[in-house]
Amino acid sequence: MASAITHRDEETPLLIPDESPLQLEPHKSHSRDVHILSLAFLLIFLAYGAAQNLQSTLNTEEDLGTTSLGILYLSLTFFSLFASLVVRILGSKNALIIGTSGYLLYVAANLKPNWYTLVPASVYLGFCASIIWVGQGTYLTSTARSHAIVNNLLEGAVIGDFNGEFWGVFALNQLIGNLITFALLSDGQGGSTKGTTLLFVVFLFVMTFGAILMCFLHKKRSGNSKEGYKHSEVDAGESESLKSLCSSLTSTFSDVKMLLIIPLIAYSGLQHAFAWAEFTKYVVTPAIGVSGVGIAMAAYGAFDGICSLAAGRLTSGLTSITSIVSFGAFVQAVVLILLLLNFSISSGFLSTLYILFLAALLGISNGVLMTQLNALLGMLFKHDMEGAFAQLKIWQSATIAIVFFVAPYISFQAVIIVMLVILCLSFCSFLWLALKVGNASSPLHR
User: Fold this and answer.
1) Of 294, 284, 290, whose CA–CA distance to 199 is shortest?
2) Residue 353 belongs to what domain range?
3) Which residue of 68, 287, 315, 359 has the fewest CB atoms within a 10 Å radius of its CB?
4) Using CB atoms within 10 A of its CB, is residue 281 exposed (0-12), middle (13-18) or buried (19+)?
5) How far apart are CA 310 and CA 327, in angstroms?
6) Which residues contact 164 (CB under 8 A, 6 or more apart)?
7) 292 falls within a domain
8) Residue 76 and residue 127: Cα distance in Å, rounded?
9) What is the spatial distance between Cα 111 and Cα 114, in angstroms, rounded to a whole number?
């Protein structure tokens, strides 16, 4: 389910040379923007996340809910190819604000769900999700970098702290969203139109407040930003942006660092889809029933948030990232091996605790992976933050879409084996990257 290091102003040339000094914001502390960004995403995604979790149970006619999710992630994969260009033109703050509209429309479509409302809303949300996540990664990292420079702090540590706060708060969306859903649908009318309508109306109000919060973010400036920079200069640079986009997409596959990160990015998407779909369907529901799904995912979200905050605090550079990712990979492997061996506890209460324990472990590993992936991209790709975070969403959403379309046709055991193989390969690739960057005497290696 984000960071970077060099940022450009909302009206800045698209390519920023390394030697350009960062123009600092007039205010010294940038933590205010992190608080606002984190809270805004929490409000938007507690509503969207809960709505997404309900798709397979509420919109069952002709598999409308599941199909719409598959379409959503295919759309997200496609639009992520162009998201970096869009964010460069709009600026990260504007991309964040516009991106919220897709989530509002998607939840509104659930008030009258059918093929003519939910499918177009899913396609549009794919576009909005691509720019909001690229904008988020770019904005958060440039904020961290500005804060580090103006306060004379270690850049890697600040990036870790800011990512830890963001992902820690963001992870609470699973906990709060599921509690709201349980409270509004537990009065016996959970399957009625009246009950679900009230739920989605409440969600729309919550999301609207989150969208309004986005407007209070400060715009960010970089070294090439000038006080007198004209909007016409941005327009003049758009044709070069198209060339830059093609160059960025092709250069990605010649950048060894990105090639070595892509497997871990892909696994993070696979892990997300596994927790949402496979784990709840084949592990939670048979053990503690459908009513236990909300409790299990709440535990998942709570431990995800706690671990994100802790991992962010411990991040200072590539060495710490390597150690933390290693821990997360180990935890993930333990869960998969326990599931593969079909280990279970027959006792009712202990069985429930065991399922919650597995959900908590999945939350811990997800919190580690998302925090460290975003910090790593921010540290390694200072000169193309938008492109780096676009790659993050391309590969994550592609693997999520694959799971939605392929998983129904293969067994649960086969899914676990595939995940274990990909986990091993992606972790080895990550270790190779750590050795490569470390041996190059990178300043990140501290």
Assistant:
1) 294
2) 31-222+253-439
3) 287
4) middle
5) 13
6) 308, 309, 310, 311, 312, 313, 315, 371
7) yes
8) 6
9) 10
- Alpha carbon distances (Å) from 265 to 275, 372, 374, 389, 400: 16, 11, 10, 10, 11
Q: What percent of the chain is predicted at pLDDT more than 70?
A: 80
14 pLDDT band, cuts 50/70/90, is very low
For the chain, how big is the Rg over CA atoms in Å? 21
pLDDT for the residue 221 = 56
CA angle 271, 359, 323 (to 5 degrees): 60
What pLDDT, on the 0 to 100 scale, is given for residue 154? 86
Q: Which two tokens stand for residue 2?
A: 């984000």
- The C-alpha atoms of residue 130 and residue 80 are separated, in whole angstroms, by 5
Q: Is residue 300 part of a domain?
A: yes
**DSSP notation for 67-100:** HHHHHHHHHHHHHHHHHHHHHHHH-HHHHHHHHH
| pLDDT band at residue 253 under the 50/70/90 scheme | low
Dig out the tokens for 294 from the structure.
Answer: 């909300």
Apex 178 CA angle, 116 and 367, nearest 5: 105
Torsional sign, CA 151, 154, 156, 160: negative
Asked whether residue 318 carries a pLDDT value surpassing 80, the answer given is yes
Q: What is the DSSP letter of 219?
A: P
Nearest by Cα to 39 from 164, 137, 172 = 172
Decide: 164 and 114 in contact? Cβ < 8 Å: no
Residue 8 forms part of a structural domain: no
What integer pLDDT is reported at residue 251 of this predicted model?
62
Structural domain count of the chain = 1
* Cα dihedral 345/421/302/350 (nearest 10): 0
Local structure of residue 27 (DSSP, 8 states):
S
* Residue 227: pLDDT over 90: no
* CB neighbour list of residue 200: distance below 8 Å, 6 or more residues apart: 51, 107, 108, 110, 111
Both tokens of 14, joined, read 């698209």
Mean pLDDT taken over the chain:
81
Q: Please state the rounded mean pLDDT for residues 148-159.
A: 88
Please check whether residue 140 lies inside any domain of the structure: yes
DSSP string, 130-145: HHHHHHHHHHHHHHHH
Nearest alpha carbon to residue 90 among 216, 246, 239, 234:
234
Separation of alpha carbons 138 and 159, rounded Å: 12
- Alpha-carbon distance of 219 to 8, in angstroms, equals 10
Q: State the virtual CA torsion across 430, 432, 433, 437 in degrees, nearest 10.
A: 150
10 Å CB burial of residue 264 (0-12, 13-18, 19+) is buried
